[in-house]
Amino acid sequence: MSFFQSPARSWRLLAVATLCAVVAVNTSATFAQDPPPDDGGTIGTDAFSGVAVDADGVLKRHVARDASGQLMRTRVEQSRVALGADLSKPSKLRKISLTRLIKLVDQAIAEGHGPDDAMLHLAGLTRIRYVFYYPQTKDIVLAGPAEGWVETPDGRMVGWDTGQPIMQLEDLAVALRTFAPEGKKNQLVYCSIDPTEDGLARMQQFLSQVGRQIQPGTEAAAEQFIAEGLRESLGLQVITVGGVPASTHFAQVMVEA
Question: Do residues 163 and 225 share a domain?
Fold first, then answer.
């Protein structure tokens, strides 16, 4: 029997059950760098955009391309077979029992093979629309739209009908730990991208000189010139995030967003 057909866990999880799609990272820092102009930046039919952090801690945009679309078509076909009819069928309101999910995950770990794809990807939920609480049984049910999912060339799990990101069990677990009843009150999950002092100084210097470098009649090109000048003068920025462990997928998505 699958875990997404019936009610779920206890009252103490209610406050955090809807936070699975939000992400952040324990206090740490890295550097962000804008991509070259031809890198793109949105997911289309032939490019799937993400980010990567190199050995120097610089965050850069990464684009994986599938020009013909054949790779994705093949993966979708394989995914339909692997998921089966129930999970492949889109649902406007799929319900997930946290009680059953926890039991199945515990059982899978005890058997030595770990959670399966349905558990890891919360039965294809793309968002949580409702949280139902059953006080008599202290159960919680998460409910929202769901669909079959596939891995894109850049490693994202998305719904094959809408392209929406699929919610992850690991993000749910991080949210529950972060906002556990015995945890700190009013804990913040955040991400801040801030320029360095040197970058601000260079930007101010550029702005003080830019007026003298733009000639009458070149206004059309001035906008691009100013944008590029600001980007280059400001340089790398510091990413500071807090509230959850830096090694989590939760943190990665927060930074990327």
Answer: no
Structural domain span for residue 78: 3-25+40-181+247-256
pLDDT of residue 226: 84
> Which tokens go with 241?
């995030």
For residues 206 and 110, what is the distance between their CA atoms, to the nearest angstrom? Answer: 61
162 burial class (0-12, 13-18, 19+ CB within 10 angstroms)? exposed
Do 7 and 127 fall within a single domain? yes
Residues 99 and 223 in one domain: no
According to the model, what pLDDT value does residue 183 have? 65
Q: Phi and psi at residue 93, in whole multiples of 5°?
A: -150, 85
- Check residue 45 and give its pLDDT: 46
Write down the pTM of the prediction. Answer: 0.67
- Whole-angstrom Cα distance, residue 80 to residue 57? 38
Segment-wise mean pLDDT, segments of 10 residues, the chain, 257 residues = 41 40 33 39 45 66 70 84 90 92 93 93 93 86 94 85 91 85 72 89 88 69 83 88 84 81
How do the residues of the chain divide into helix, strand and coil, expressed in percent and rounded to 5?
A: 40, 25, 35
Residues 60 and 11 occupy one common structural domain: yes
Do 71 and 142 lie in one domain? The reply is: yes
Q: What is the pLDDT at residue 149?
A: 92
**In 3D, which of 84, 194, 74 has the Cα closest to residue 148?**
84
What the block records as the tokens of 203 is 């930007």
Q: Do both 144 and 104 map to the same domain?
A: yes
Same domain, 144 and 224: no
